[in-house]
Specification:
This protein is α+β, with helices and mostly antiparallel strands. It has 17 helices and 20 strands. Belongs to the RtcB family.
Length: 486
């Protein structure tokens, strides 16, 4: 197949797994989809390709708009999308970051093996569910006030370290060491802070989860050793973001853009791509607010990890230090960052938007934590609760192909509404336990139905494409043992 046609969009095959939508009309750049033919068929089922084409109209977009192999329709900008906009003459777009600012994942390793956990699954899933707040609305691990939220927004995980919720090693194994420079709490509205103050240390709802997993495969022994991974080991994966604070921040700035930059908005094919021109006061304000929300999300995941350590201590009757419950890595996948990349033979500062995409810097890159600089940045790609997840490392080709990015998960195949029509939560829960020995607990059966394994793309295929392209190299695969959801 040399071309692919869907919904009025024609893609040309550049090489294996690389498909290009040529620049035409008012597009400011070409667009590219990184996918196998099987994944491309699924990506084309919704408005992903149309949204990708629309994204090329954003001012200052560089090289091309990119859709990862897990891509699907989002708010304006596709989930699984990467767009790098010139930081001087381009723009920054809240819609190209997403409502859940710094939704991301962190993985914690342990010295427990699967046999240590067998027989404790129900006790463990019940204890985690009872002790880690989840679901819509308020309730967090820390009862905080607005002053606490201000401190968290400014300092990130350094705040958690000072208050006994983290150790120094946690910061060293987190993207940006858990604190974004340029965070400005004063640019986060009072309404957003009020929403966040009762949610610090909570999973939320939707596709967010805490999952205990076992390592089933290690594909690269040397890198696996550097990451602290070995076969049959128990690890813990946490997936959540900035809760109501991030959602409100996105919403606040979308409304401000509509009011202050209507001229630019009217030039875009989709109002959901609303963007503030680089250099404008509103662009600076949003960047400061977004960085603050990023810090909030990192603290949120840190607190959940802290509580998880406590739960494991009670269930297994030993200290978390004895169980070596150490942070492997925490990485964001809804974010825009000022980064310097080579474009046309020169170094340029860009706003790199990753919406449902993971930073994947290769070995030697100065922004990779020193613990992993010799092997490459850890990349964590969750699958569904009935499939494996993956740990990758940043690939050598990522800087040229994707501005140092790869996929962020399996990617949805089905809307939540359709999922609830096709699946019954209780049946999914029972089948996972009976057939795969996976123990799941959630606030409602509807949540389980919305997140049924059949709702997602094949994570094995997503990772196969990433590995083949050299943007994220396979290191290890994990499989669920127990899972809690909102």
């Amino acid at each position: 197949m040399t071309t692919f046609d869907a919904n009025g969009v024609t893609l040309e095959r550049i090489r294996e797994f690389v498909w290009e939508l040529p620049q035409e009309g008012e597009m400011r750049s070409p667009a590219r989809v990184l996918a196998s033919e099987a994944l491309l068929e699924q990506i084309s089922d919704d408005k992903t390709l149309e949204q990708l084409r629309n994204a090329t109209h954003l001012p200052g977009i560089t090289n091309y708009a990119i859709c990862m192999p897990d891509g699907h329709q989002g708010y304006g900008f596709p989930v699984g999308g990467v767009g790098a906009m010139d930081a001087e003459n381009g723009c920054i777009s809240p819609g190209a970051v997403g409502y859940d600012i710094n939704c991301g994942v962190r993985m914690m390793t342990t010295n427990l093996t699967y046999s240590d956990v067998q027989g404790h699954e129900e006790e463990l899933v019940d204890a985690l569910f009872d002790n880690v707040p989840s679901g819509l609305g308020g309730g967090g691990i820390v009862e905080s006030d607005v002053d606490t939220v201000e401190d968290v927004l400014a300092r990130g995980v350094d705040w958690a370290l000072e208050h006994g919720y983290a150790v120094e090693e946690d910061l060293l194994h987190c993207e940006d060491e858990g604190m974004r420079e340029g965070a400005d709490p004063s640019k986060v509205t009072q309404k957003a802070k009020d929403r966040g103050k009762n949610q610090l240390g909570s999973l939320g709802s939707g596709n967010h989860f805490l999952e205990v997993q076992r390592v089933t495969d290690v594909f690269d022994g040397e890198v696996g050793e550097a990451f602290g991974l070995e076969k049959d080991q128990i690890v813990v994966l946490i997936h959540c973001g900035s809760r109501g604070l991030g959602h409100q921040t996105c919403n606040d700035y979308l409304r401000k853009i509509e009011q202050q930059h209507r001229g630019l908005l009217n030039q875009l094919p989709d109002k959901e791509l609303a963007a503030a021109p680089a250099g404008s006061q509103l662009a600076e304000d949003y960047y400061g607010a977004m960085n603050a929300a990023i810090n909030f999300a990192w603290v949120n995941r840190q607190l959940i990890m802290h509580r998880t350590r406590q739960v494991f201590e009670r269930v297994f009757d030993r200290s978390w230090e004895e169980m070596e419950m150490n942070l492997l890595y925490d990485v964001a996948h809804n974010i825009a960052k000022k980064e310097t990349h080579e474009v046309g033979g020169e170094q340029r500062e860009l706003y790199v938007h990753r919406k449902g995409a993971t930073r994947a810097f290769p070995a030697g890159h100065p922004d990779v934590p020193s613990a992993y600089r010799d092997v490459g940045q850890p990349v964590i790609i969750p699958g569904s609760m009935g499939a494996g997840s993956y740990v990758l490392r940043g690939g050598e080709a990522s800087m040229d192909l994707t501005f140092g990015s790869t996929a962020h998960g399996a990617g949805r195949l089905m809307s939540r509404t359709q999922a609830k029509q096709d699946y019954w939560g209780g049946d999914v829960q029972q089948e996972l336990q009976d057939r795969q020995q996976i123990y799941v607990k959630a606030q409602s059966g509807a949540t389980i139905a919305e997140e049924a394994p059949g709702v997602y793309k094949d994570v094995d295929e997503v990772v196969r494409v990433s590995d083949a392209l050299g943007i994220g190299d396979k290191v290890a695969r994990t499989f669920p043992v127990c899972n809690i959801k909102g």
